[in-house]
Amino acid sequence: MSFEDYRGVWVYIEVKEGQVAPVSLELLGAGRRLADKRRTELAGVVIGEGVKPLAETVFAYGADTLYVYDDPIYKHYRTEPYMKALLACTQKYKPEIILYGATSTGKDLASAVATDLPTGLTADSTMLDVEEDTGLLLASRPAFGGNIMATILCKKYRPQMATVRPKVMKALFPEPGRTGTLVEESIPLQEEEVRTKVLEIVRETARRVRIDEADIVVAGGKGMGGPAGFQLIHKLAEVLGAAVGASRDVVEAGWIGHHHQVGQTGVTVTPKIYFAVGISGAIQHIVGMQNSGLIIAINKDPNAAIFQNCHYGIVGDAFEILPLLIEEYTTALG
Ligand code: FAD
């Protein structure tokens, strides 16, 4: 394997409801920085049906090139066809670096591609840098229970691949009218060859604010006592139009589903306001919410670690404080 053959930084462009997913825009910002440092080009790869028009957005957010696989066979995400397309593109153009969002699709695709390419994959990166002269990707992520940041290198193989958590990188300010090169690609793949069939898509009907996209998150911990006590978290969130977050212990106790878990092994959130109620403030929780605009902690233990990581701290019983807040906000917000 000659490293000289591998050039350019790629971002896998995830499509969500016909639009470029926010995490892919963030990765174009991060990828642009890496590509500029390395004096190379930034490319996107998009796979889907009717996705060609997304080129405009991808170029506006910093890409020089977009490789497009546009075919009805890619209508819904399925590991096999997407992996085959991306693999073919990678083998043909040999990028030095490929970045994916650490979303369920991104993680699934990246790990499938990594199994077929002789290379590694750094999962859930929160910081990225590149060595200007060698092109070595420095992908950092929390390790050992969040107590250290580990920088992971892939010294012997190319391309270097990383999944990156949503909301940790910054998208560039879009430049409307910025253009790039559109490269249409295809692989000989028939529907009969694909083992997975999408029979039906069942959408969750409950109105739920996505935790990683919400402006306000109300998160509850073990201090809420049980599923019944945790209802106060839902109530405050409802009044504020907020998403509900939780500590891992709450998720493990089965009070709420895993996609509400904030932290190292959950979701990273950066809302404008984060309420941490009955949460002790373990480092594994803090790494998932510390970049929130305003953190308000409620805990009955004045020595709880959460008070070291908040802007406003209320020492008291959540069962007395939450009803007051709910009443106050209900009146104020009408
Ligand atoms: P506790 O630590 O039990 O804290 C409960 C808090 O509630 C206490 O501070 C208490 O004073 C307060 N309290 C009790 N009653 C009241 C009341 N009536 N009113 C107000 N306050 C009250 N954790 C995560 O959250 N996210 C992760 O992603 C995550 N990943 C992990 C990964 C690894 C590898 C490991 C080892 C751990 C991970 N954890 C994670 C677990 C983490 O270490 C903590 O155990 C967890 O965050 C604690 O949850 P908690 O704060 O809800 O519970």
Task: Characterize the structure shown.
The radius of gyration is 22 Å and the shape is elongated. Helix 5 (227-240) runs parallel beside helix 8. The protein has a seven-stranded parallel beta sheet with strand order 7-11-6-1-4-5-12, with helices on both faces. Strand 15, helix 7 (283-286) and strand 16 (294-299) form a beta-alpha-beta unit. Helices cover 27% and strands 24% of the residues. With 334 residues, the chain is of the alpha/beta class. It starts with 8 loop residues before the first strand and ends with a helix. Bound molecules: flavin-adenine dinucleotide. Residues 145, 221-223, 247-250, 261-266, 278-280, 282, 284-285, 288, 298-301, 304, 317-319 line the site of flavin-adenine dinucleotide.
Provide key terms for this protein.
334 residues, alpha/beta, 17 strands, elongated, Subunit alpha of electron transfer flavoprotein, electron transfer activity, flavin adenine dinucleotide binding
